[in-house]
Amino acid sequence: MKKFNIRKVLDGLKEVSSSAPSVQVGPQENHLIQETLQSEHFQLCKTVRHGFPYQPSSMAFDPVQKILAIGTQSGALRLFGRPGVECYCQHESGAAVIQLQFLINEGALVSALADDSVHLWNLRQKRPAILHSLKFSRERITFCHLPFQSKWLYIGTERGNIHIVNVESFTLSGYVIMWNKAIELSSKAHPGPVVHISDNPMDEGKLIIGFESGIVVLWDLKSKKADYRYTYDEAIHSVAWHHEGKQFICSHSDGTLTIWNVKGQGKPIQTITPHGKQPKDGKKPEPCKPILKVEYKTTRAGEPFIILSGGLSYDTVGRRPCLTVMHGKSTAVLEMDYPIVDFLTLCETPYPNDFQEPYAVVVLLEKDLVVIDLAQNGYPIFENPYPLTIHESPVTCCEYFADCSVDLIPALYSVGSRQKRQGYSKKEWPISGGNWGQGTQSYPEIIITGHADGTVKFWDASAIMLQVLYKLKTAKVFERGRPKEEKGSTEVSDEDPFAIQIMAWCPESRMLCVAGVSANVIIYRFSKLEVTTEVVQLLEVRMQYELNDTESPEGGGGDQTPALPTPGASPQTSGPPSHPSTSSNNSDGGSMACLKVRSTPLKQSPGYQVDLVVQLVWVNGEPPQPITSLALNSSYGLVVFGNSSGLAVVDYIQKTVLLNLGTVELYGSNDPYQRQPRSPRKTRQPSGGLCDINEGSATSEDRCKSPTSVLCGCFTSLCLLLTVLLSVCPPRGANPLDHRDNSFSRSRSSSVTSIDKEAREAITSFHFCETFARKGDNSLTPCLYVGTSLGTVLAVALTLPPAGEQRQLQPVIVSPTGMLVRLKGSILRMAFLDSTGSLLPPAYEPWYEPNISANGEERDKVRKRRPVSVSPSSSQDLNECQYAVVCSEKQAKVISLPSQTGIYKHSITETSFILRADVVHMSAGVCVACFCANGHIMTLSLPGLRPLLDVNYLPLTDMRIARTFCFTNLGQAMYLTSPTEIQRITYSQDTCENLQEMLGELFTPVETPEAPNRGFFKGLFGGGAQSLDREELFGELAAGKASRSLAQHIPGPGGIEGMKGAASGVVGDLARARIALDERGQKLGELEERTAAMMASADSFSKHAHEVKGNFKEFKNLETPRGLKIWTSVANFDVCDCRAEPDHCCHLVVRVMGLKI
């Protein structure tokens, strides 16, 4: 029976009844700190989405605006212009986008969805919006076609009918092409869904309709009947016209292409099987896979291009998907890395009745976008400038840094530019539409992503753009293949053994530390020089802790033999001795590492170069626990990492382990928990669950776990989960590296008392700082603060030798000093404030070139620490000059130092738990930013912990979000919204206000190219393109009204009035001014034409007047009905009062002595 906890109930009531934090004021004047941040400084909104569109389904291109649109299976729209101009939109229904059609050069896009709805998007604003929607209720949409410079959209359905929509008003026309009228009257079978619609390039009144069954119909729109019908035995997938309108080509399900004459009946004039084997006896080729799409593009100077996807023979098992380019007698087969979703041929002209002159092919793959240059031999691809390679290997972790040093991005770019591949097309990227934003945000931003294959990527994220700077491959440090005898005994993360788990980066010193899933830690230095490392420095650490009531650790078995020290490793001077080793395997495999460090020389290019590798080794055939926390400090020269067994502090300058303790040992004799030994248990979970790119949503069981338990749960899929007994602290003489393994997995609970008896306590966070190590201290000391999964914060004092040569030789003293504070839930974040409430950054060492010779001046430079700004006023007690900020899954606390008095406390959540918490700089102060599992994003003031922002933004739907969500300075945040896309958000009011200016513009006023010249003879004999008055044919007067039950019109939120109000900024005003100027020019042109017509009409009247005047050579007396005689003469003619146009007026108006007759 569950114990009733009255304290929990009271805490919940306090949280509900008041939004103010529960405050405890210490004996000092803590309230004197003036907090500058207020709630009006915060506002939450999405900024931009980067990466490849997840699960793409359709594509379209505007050849005049040069904009590419991609639709996805989740109803998302991604629009791409020139590099740096991107836009993300989302259909509310979330249905898959089956087709996209641009209104070419009009700033609009039509999208057709799988839920049988059609939408019109306005692209003339920075954030596109839906103008109109049409929801079909009785028929399923299968294909759409919008002719160039037409406002009538053809919609084919699953029933085989074609409906016509006016895209201006988004209303249905009464003109319908019924399937039973299109096919032969004698045919009894249904032709199937409509798979293609297009009008004849030379005659807009002729429409070709392709049905799935293999029937193609040429429909005469004026006579409303079929002119010709073409029948083939195989199903049709696509149809394409020759630009002269006399031939068309079809692709079929048996891998064949058929070419037909428009006026030809019966059989096609040519049948081609591009990938079929041609039998010698003249029989029909063997069937191949379906050709899903074909395009037929002509050139003036040579043979036409026939481009197709699919059609491979069935015997090519395992062959990658291909795009085939047939040009004259040559056939090029271009292999792709992923299945082809769609492709488009980019041509010089938007007019379908002119020579197409294709110059590139855009190929949309399931996980990539490829653009092929058709103008160069060998068809090279263009170098893709978009950040579409985020998912090149699945992302496992992320870090975000805003307001970095200005020299970081140039330094990373200079070494990353040498990594670029060769062999790309020399031409410029063809998708070049839109304009960049005019925002003023200029501080540098860097995003770091860790991946499943061991790569680490650095991205320039400044000014809401994203560009890859540098890629580091950590797997180069290890041997690729494993010995056969090891493979049978260890199944540690076989799928992704090099996956990055945690990253720690010091931007000032450019030191990088990464922890992998195979229980390894790699420390990197940044260098601009190439170097060859003969032997990779390695430390092997045996981190396992066992607590047993009946057996002491020294009697524990065969793993007591100390490993041989690594050559050059310094002896231990404080705390337990370490055992660095290069190879130390006992007969039972007790010291085996999960990965083997390479023994051959390693050539390291400029960039990040490995300085030290630390590996946790197996003990007694049991694998080490995954690393759950990591931190480095460049000023101290230390790296610390922890897991569910304990923690280890490594001095990477002297290449030695300073401390290797179980979590219980950090408490000493003051352990507040009653720990119980556990019975042995072995479990094995399937591997590969960490970061599959096709992962779905997490189960409800995953959603209710804390991030710490989920983190450990994720990585047990990569190492065997073992159970270990905990016992008392070993004596100082015993081998401390011989601790038994201690796996960590705790249940979700909001009460600390329910986990007090939990035997396993994992290390969840670290923080280096210069502060008061013990209660009552009056001097600052370098310290390491340790947070655990049971909500405890422990302090470790560090005694460092002086900088310079003494730091290389003298030992670092590490001394645990006890517990600072306890909170509910796992400790997520720690930070320190000075007496004014400003954030105290950790000490750091400025970057220097590590590969300069030993006698160089730079090499002998004294390593300086950054001074910590602690300057208490004379009226304030020296003992109260710092504040420790601690945030757990449930609470936040502020503790005054060195008195260690809690002065502020806030219960953030009772019913959920915090996934990510960061202490961040804002333009007006410092705050705590939290992301909760129930979807809330919250900020709290410091040091008062007042709630400033609480927005229900995004409930946790899968572990990808929990693994990658991170806050950074100046109100920026990001997370991986899909396996291939990064979503950036802001919680800063300033950024939200400036976002409109920062966003790029998709639509820019561009003049439509001139129509092709018909030529003298074509104009004389009528051989040119035939136009069609669609308004007269499809309008309500001629076609009547459509059935109201067929489709429902839904006005969109992005109407013209809303668009004009939303579009703002100098660029938008200029664009609108240019558009208005163009429209005014068009109206002036029309007025000039009408004036000319009126002048011609006036000349005609003048001629008639002269004729009349010649007939009346003599004057006459005209007698009026009243008998009044008026002496008149025909002087001139006047304007008629009727409202007819001048060209249509038939009245002759004569002005006689000032009177009109």
Please work out how many helical segments DSSP would assign. Answer: 15
Kindly report the average pLDDT value.
Answer: 79
Number of strands: 66
| Poorly predicted spans | 1-31, 483-493, 548-589, 678-758, 854-879, 1056-1068, 1113-1133, 1139-1144, 1148-1157
Global morphology: elongated
- Sequence of strands across the biggest β-sheet: 6-7-8-9-61
Radius of gyration from CA coordinates: 38 Å
Q: Outline the biggest β-sheet.
A: 5 strands, antiparallel
Structural class: mainly beta
> End-to-end span in angstroms?
110 Å
WD repeats: 229-263
GO molecular function, one term: myosin II binding
Subcellular location: Cell membrane; Cytoplasm
Pfam family, one: Lgl_C
Write the layout of secondary structure elements.
Blueprint lengths: L5 H12 L24 E10 L4 E7 L4 E6 L3 E5 L5 E5 L6 E7 L4 E6 L3 E6 L6 E8 L4 E5 L6 E6 L4 E5 L4 E7 L1 H4 L11 E7 L2 E9 L3 E6 L4 E7 L4 E6 L5 E6 L4 E5 L8 E3 L18 E7 L7 E6 L11 E6 L2 E6 L4 E8 L10 E8 L3 E5 L21 E8 L5 H9 L28 E7 L3 E6 L6 E7 L10 H6 L10 E7 L4 E6 L3 E8 L3 E3 L4 E4 L60 E3 L2 E10 L12 E5 L4 E5 L3 E6 L4 E7 H5 L14 E2 L16 H4 L3 H9 L5 E2 L40 E9 L9 E8 L3 E8 L5 H5 L3 E10 L4 E8 L45 E9 L2 E8 L2 E7 L6 E9 L2 E8 L3 E6 L5 E6 L6 H6 L1 E3 L3 E7 L2 E8 H10 L17 H6 L8 H5 L1 H4 L7 E5 L4 H7 L3 H46 L5 E3 L5 E3 L4 E2 L16 E3 ...
Parallel strand pairs: 37-39
Antiparallel strand pairs: 1-60, 2-3, 3-4, 4-5, 6-7, 7-8, 8-9, 9-61, 10-11, 11-12, 12-13, 14-15, 15-16, 16-17, 18-19, 19-20, 20-21, 22-23, 23-24, 24-25, 26-27, 27-28, 29-30, 30-31, 31-32, 33-34, 34-35, 35-39, 36-38, 40-41, 41-42, 42-43, 44-45, 46-47, 47-48, 48-49, 50-51, 51-52, 52-53, 54-55, ...
GO cellular component, one term: SNARE complex
Membrane topology: Peripheral membrane protein
Keywords: Cell membrane, Coiled coil, Cytoplasm, Exocytosis, Membrane, Phosphoprotein, Protein transport, Repeat, Transport, WD repeat
